[in-house]
Amino acid sequence: GMALLEVVLLAGPAFALVLLVSLVVLFAPSSGGSGPPGSDKVVHLLLFAALAATARWCFGALLPALVAVAAYAPVSELVQALLLPGRSGDPLDVVADLAGVALGWTLARRLRP
Question: What are the residue ranges of helices labelled H in the chain?
């Protein structure tokens, strides 16, 4: 019905778009810390809030969806630290990511797409 249509037309593409943006932000070669100090933490928070919110809209309030988005945070930092020359992992980025996950997951319950 209407709910399925919402997921197919809105939530799915929104989640895919945010995931794509996250791949660019997290794994593209570093731009050398442009922006004021701490601004990267804000980017992490907002990015993971968007990921969590769109994941919840797309897959529903399922624990595996929440766990997957939350797990993406430390995994992304490990990939940066171990596999990407010129990038380093930052434990504080993970904290910002997880704060974003909590925020986005909570907001998604209140804001339907």
Answer: 2-6, 12-27, 39-59, 63-83, 91-110
- Unique residue bearing structure tokens 């993406």: 72
Predicted structure pTM score: 0.89
How confident is the model over 59-75, as pLDDT tens digits? 999 999 999 999 999 99
Q: Which residue has the higher pLDDT, 30 or 79?
A: 79
Phi/psi region, residue 89 (left: phi>0; alpha: psi -120 to 50; beta: rest), is beta
Rounded (5°) CA angle 84-45-31:
40
Q: What span, in angstroms and rounded, lies between the C-alpha atoms of 43 and 96?
A: 9
| pLDDT computed for residue 1 by the predictor | 67
Q: What whole-number distance in Å separates Cα of residue 111 and Cα of residue 89?
A: 32
Q: How far apart are CA 12 and CA 15, in angstroms?
A: 5
